[in-house]
Amino acid sequence: MMETQTTPKIRKAKWGLRLMLFALITFAILLSVLTAAVYLYAKILGPPPLSVPQSTLYYAQNGKQIGESNSGQQRYWVPLDGISENAIDATISIEDRNFYHHHGFDYRRMAGAVAADMKAMGKVQGASTITQQYARNLFLTLDKTWERKLKEAFYTIRLESSYSKDRILEGYLNTINYGHGKYGIEAASRYYFGKSAKQLTLAEAAMLAGIPNGPGVYSPVISPEKAKKRQLAVLQSMVKNGYITKKQATAAANETIKIVQKADPDTNRIAPYFQDLVKKQLKTKLGFDDRTIALGGLKVYTTLDVKQQEIAEETVKEIIPASSHIQIGFAAINPKNGFVTALTGGRDYAESSFNRATQATRQPGSTMKPLLYYAALNHGFTPATMLKSEPTVFRPGGSSYRPHNFNSQYANRDITMMQALAVSDNIYAVKTHLLLGQDVLVQTAKQFGLTTPMEKVPSLALGTSGVHLLDMVNAYSLLANGGTQNGPVFITKVEDYKGRVLYAYDKHEKERVLDKAAAFVTSQMMTGMFDKRLNGYARVTGASIVKNLTRPYAGKSGSTNTDSWMIGFSPQLVSGVWVGYDNGQEITLAADKMYAKKIWARFMEKALDGRPVTEFKPPKGVTGVEIDPATGKIATANCPVARLTYFISGTEPAEPCSKHPAAGENELYPKKHRNWLEKLFPFF
């Protein structure tokens, strides 16, 4: 028997096979170890952050979107159940049909893509899964380097090992580029079809699903023909993958789709000055940083009343001629809750974003007097307190001060506080201010929420220290609601992109800062500017607009050489208007001096149109008495004029009017006020 001999050539071949097998096993082991290490490292790092820049949206009281902030990428995050099944199925079918069956990579599809590319000698077919594309959208640039591809693979592993398939799909649908600066299916659906992603039909969903493959090619706005061909390809893939029937695909293909190309929200169109203040409060009051405010996907619910805002802006345009260079500040507040319902800081935001309602510091003139008389009521004065209106030189601290009434009109006799306020008598105001002590009005201004410094001078009673319009409107809101500091409020709620509440306004955040009875008595004296029964040596200051008013109002106008004001309220609404020139130019034209009152009156009437006419209801602690305005005493049947006047209980007059025949005894002042009034005269 002969022994089989192995030739060197055969031995060499066997050794080569063993070596190749060893190398393959070693490579497989190393690859397994490396893969396991990568997955372990991914687990150690934990879930990658999924935050992406998203549009912050702003809403009015009624839920209407009034604006948004973004960096040129509109994106509105919606949950997966907020997207139509048609859109979800169409996307999976055309982008990654095995999405729910792989772990981030579709190896069979990758092999097919490599074969197709080799056959065509170029890049003709993609193989990226939805997870890979999501990783690219979240963390990477679009360059085609090997480094980027390795990072993409690693982030894909991290996503798949940390999040559910539904979470990944939701993120992908909310971040993918649909063209025209629209990122995410909600922004795209609103732009192309004017509807939410939840409402998409099969035909619309198929067209949207085809866009991300080439937004600059398959956008129906850019190329309706190519968009249609891509839509048909998506529908065919859905039939092939079992999502729809051929009949459904044919119906969808024949459906006429209306591309609305809805314009982006114009943030400068709906209350831009108001929106600026909301953004400022998000930062200064609620503590959000600039990036979160601009791109954090917040939903900010505000107090804006769109109807009132439109009325305010339209009224300004109707009353002030376009040729005029005069400027305006306007604000309206609901006194019951402190909500700022309308605000404008100028006539044209595009021309000037300077907010004259909150940034301008202007002299309030006689609109300061209600605050002064509120203080006086708490120091013994009453609406019937009488002081003499005549040319007067005041010499507090040795200096001289000579104020003047409008048009140098004086009663040259004693007048009541309620008449002094109604006709805006300056002499009465300065006398009251000096009697109280100049620091009283300074402290009262702070009590009313004025944030600008008040100078302790006699002219402070006439509004010579600058204020902000919004501060003054809020101060009048305190008088309207009985002394409760509850505003101004701009934001009621803030949510993140997931709908989680980050801030909610607490309606209990309020504080009583004024005496309720004194606030009501002050507001009742303020109704006098519209009451012709208080005409005396001068007309009441609201006489020119009384004919345009159909319900009870309280208010006060004010003017300086450079500023014109009107602030007033009903029980339901407070509003204020400032008119003047930015450069401090003197207001000389008679028409310019009337703008503030006219705008205020027209706004209030239109804003309250259709709402019930409500009276000012007296609270406990006040007493109403029919008063003769000329004497400040209880009116008798012989008095030609009688006006129901409210007093803090216990301070109302007890003596009947003696000026007219058959009246009672002649008493100038109630006894309880006589002594301290006599202290006034050393100031003169």
TrEMBL record:
<keyword id="KW-0573">Peptidoglycan synthesis</keyword>
<comment type="similarity">
    <text>In the C-terminal section; belongs to the transpeptidase family.</text>
</comment>
<dbReference type="GO" id="GO:0030288">
    <property type="term" value="C:outer membrane-bounded periplasmic space"/>
</dbReference>
<keyword id="KW-0812">Transmembrane</keyword>
<keyword id="KW-0378">Hydrolase</keyword>
<dbReference type="GO" id="GO:0005886">
    <property type="term" value="C:plasma membrane"/>
</dbReference>
<dbReference type="GO" id="GO:0008658">
    <property type="term" value="F:penicillin binding"/>
</dbReference>
<dbReference type="Pfam" id="PF00905">
    <property type="entry name" value="Transpeptidase"/>
</dbReference>
<dbReference type="InterPro" id="IPR036950">
    <property type="entry name" value="PBP_transglycosylase"/>
</dbReference>
<dbReference type="InterPro" id="IPR050396">
    <property type="entry name" value="Glycosyltr_51/Transpeptidase"/>
</dbReference>
<keyword id="KW-1133">Transmembrane helix</keyword>
<feature type="domain" description="Penicillin-binding protein transpeptidase">
    <location>
        <begin position="330"/>
        <end position="604"/>
    </location>
</feature>
<dbReference type="GO" id="GO:0008360">
    <property type="term" value="P:regulation of cell shape"/>
</dbReference>
<dbReference type="InterPro" id="IPR001460">
    <property type="entry name" value="PCN-bd_Tpept"/>
</dbReference>
<dbReference type="GO" id="GO:0009252">
    <property type="term" value="P:peptidoglycan biosynthetic process"/>
</dbReference>
<keyword id="KW-0472">Membrane</keyword>
<dbReference type="GO" id="GO:0071555">
    <property type="term" value="P:cell wall organization"/>
</dbReference>
<keyword id="KW-1003">Cell membrane</keyword>
<dbReference type="InterPro" id="IPR001264">
    <property type="entry name" value="Glyco_trans_51"/>
</dbReference>
<keyword id="KW-0328">Glycosyltransferase</keyword>
<dbReference type="GO" id="GO:0009002">
    <property type="term" value="F:serine-type D-Ala-D-Ala carboxypeptidase activity"/>
</dbReference>
<dbReference type="InterPro" id="IPR023346">
    <property type="entry name" value="Lysozyme-like_dom_sf"/>
</dbReference>
<feature type="domain" description="Glycosyl transferase family 51">
    <location>
        <begin position="63"/>
        <end position="238"/>
    </location>
</feature>
<keyword id="KW-0511">Multifunctional enzyme</keyword>
<keyword id="KW-0121">Carboxypeptidase</keyword>
<feature type="transmembrane region" description="Helical">
    <location>
        <begin position="21"/>
        <end position="42"/>
    </location>
</feature>
<dbReference type="GO" id="GO:0008955">
    <property type="term" value="F:peptidoglycan glycosyltransferase activity"/>
</dbReference>
<keyword id="KW-0808">Transferase</keyword>
<protein>
    <submittedName>
        <fullName>Penicillin-binding protein 2D</fullName>
    </submittedName>
</protein>
<dbReference type="Pfam" id="PF00912">
    <property type="entry name" value="Transgly"/>
</dbReference>
<dbReference type="GO" id="GO:0006508">
    <property type="term" value="P:proteolysis"/>
</dbReference>
<comment type="similarity">
    <text>In the N-terminal section; belongs to the glycosyltransferase 51 family.</text>
</comment>
<dbReference type="InterPro" id="IPR012338">
    <property type="entry name" value="Beta-lactam/transpept-like"/>
</dbReference>
<keyword id="KW-0645">Protease</keyword>
<keyword id="KW-0133">Cell shape</keyword>
<keyword id="KW-0961">Cell wall biogenesis/degradation</keyword>
